[in-house]
Write a structure and sequence with these properties.
With 356 residues, this protein is of the alpha/beta class. Helices cover 40% and strands 22% of the residues. β6 and β7 form a beta hairpin. The structure holds nicotinamide-adenine-dinucleotide.
């Protein structure tokens, strides 16, 4: 089969880690007989330098003409003093909007070999951890009405949290479909004891659950969910929640794993289209030094193969290769604790490709 992928290396370590992900993609393509046509385009700080615009129209056009997008990371010190609306990170909001990416999938998993990196006690994590946070990405308070008005107490600012039934229904379906491929358990997180928007959220999620009789649904208030994530994270399979709650809980879940360089993510549109990227940023402190861990980006490619292209065996092969390389003791500097073999970005990529 042939597939078209728009590749946005971006800034900082973006180009370093994306190169390794493309090496792994090409290797898996050769093994399984697929051709991946990759077109590199600009976004972020490098796009500002080259065109004056963090998200050039050409980038949007190439992304729209592709089956999926692979993104490294954007941003860096060089552009930190630009006004908010001109910063490289604006490219991310623009891409999400242009491509209709409404569902953000953030897996938090622990590789047995890296269990020591977690800040939680070993007994809490014994048996491993494998959670996916499904976060609504284009609605809620981050996109609601906002403003400032005068009051008796001085100027007051407000941001409105609003969700329509349609928005909740489509993100709930993503979560239930995901649970069907996993352990058939969805936890919906809201604040229905206080917020009207959460009461609507809970009602719609409960309705959607009727179409998935095999999936167990439970509901948690967000404050309880935040506690449960550190008390007993193994109780979760798929967590579905709003934009703002998901922003916070997915970061909390990723910290449980202790290794930012290992975690991939996906942002999906209606249909199979998706953008895939590591959860971390552009790490300007490591850029161009062959020190960044490329594994999160490589695992993002595995997610792309599974969710956009439906190539599960190919995705499994990449994940197995990552596990094998960790089991053999190869570690990039962020994971290195004095044992095993210290390797750079390129060597880590070569090792993973070699296992494929
Ligand atoms: P960051 O994730 O880039 O870095 C946080 C820490 O983790 C740093 O110490 C960094 O060295 C380390 N780190 C990150 N990725 C790593 C990897 N693959 N291997 C080894 N170590 C890694 O977050 P930050 O420092 O807050 O932000 C840096 C820049 O990235 C900022 O301009 C920020 O706006 C941008 N950013 C971009 C994205 C994105 O493109 N999606 C996301 C977050 C931050």
């Amino acid at each position: 089969m042939e597939y078209r992928i728009a590749v946005i290396p971006g800034d900082g370590i973006g180009p370093d880690i994306v190169d390794q992900a493309l090496l792994v993609l090409e290797t898996v393509g050769k093994k399984f007989g697929h051709t991946f046509h990759c077109t590199k385009v600009l976004a972020g700080g490098c796009a500002i330098d080259a065109t004056g615009n963090c998200l050039p129209q050409e980038t949007i056009d190439v992304c729209k003409a592709s089956d999926a997008v692979l993104l490294g990371a954007v941003g860096g010190w060089k552009w930190d003093n630009l006004p908010g609306d001109q910063r490289p990170e604006r490219a991310l909001l623009g891409i999400r909007k242009e491509l209709g990416l409404f569902a953000n999938l953030r897996p938090a998993m622990i590789f047995e070999e890296l269990a020591d990196a977690s800040p939680l006690k070993p007994e809490i994590l014994s048996g491993g951890l494998d959670i996916v946070v499904v976060r609504e990405l284009t609605g809620g308070i981050y996109f609601g009405d906002r403003g400032t008005r005068d009051t008796d107490m001085g100027p007051a600012a407000y941001d409105v949290e609003q969700y329509s039934e349609g928005e909740v229904r489509r993100i709930a379906k993503v979560a239930f479909d995901m649970a069907m491929k996993r352990n058939k358990h969805v936890t919906s997180v809201d604040k229905a004891n206080v917020l009207d928007s959460s009461r609507l959220w809970r009602r719609v999620v409960t309705e959607v659950a009727k179409d998935y009789p095999e999936v167990t649904l439970d509901h948690l208030y967000v404050d309880n969910a935040a506690m449960q994530l550190v008390r007993n994270p193994r109780q979760f399979d798929v967590i579905v929640t709003s934009n703002i709650f998901g922003d916070i809980l997915s970061d909390e879940a990723s910290q449980i794993t202790g290794s930012i360089g290992m975690l991939p993510s996906a942002s999906l549109a209606q249909g199979n289209f998706g953008m895939y990227e590591p959860i971390h940023g552009s790490a300007p402190d490591l850029a161009g030094q062959d020190k960044a861990n490329p594994t999160a980006t490589i695992l993002s490619v595995a997610m792309m193969l599974r969710y956009t292209f439906g190539l599960s065996a190919e995705a499994d092969t990449i994940e197995a290769a990552v596990k094998a390389v960790l089991a053999k003791g190869y570690r990039t500097p962020d994971l290195y604790t004095g044992e095993g073999t210290l390797v750079g970005t390129q060597e880590m990529g070569r090792c993973i490709a070699g296992e494929i």
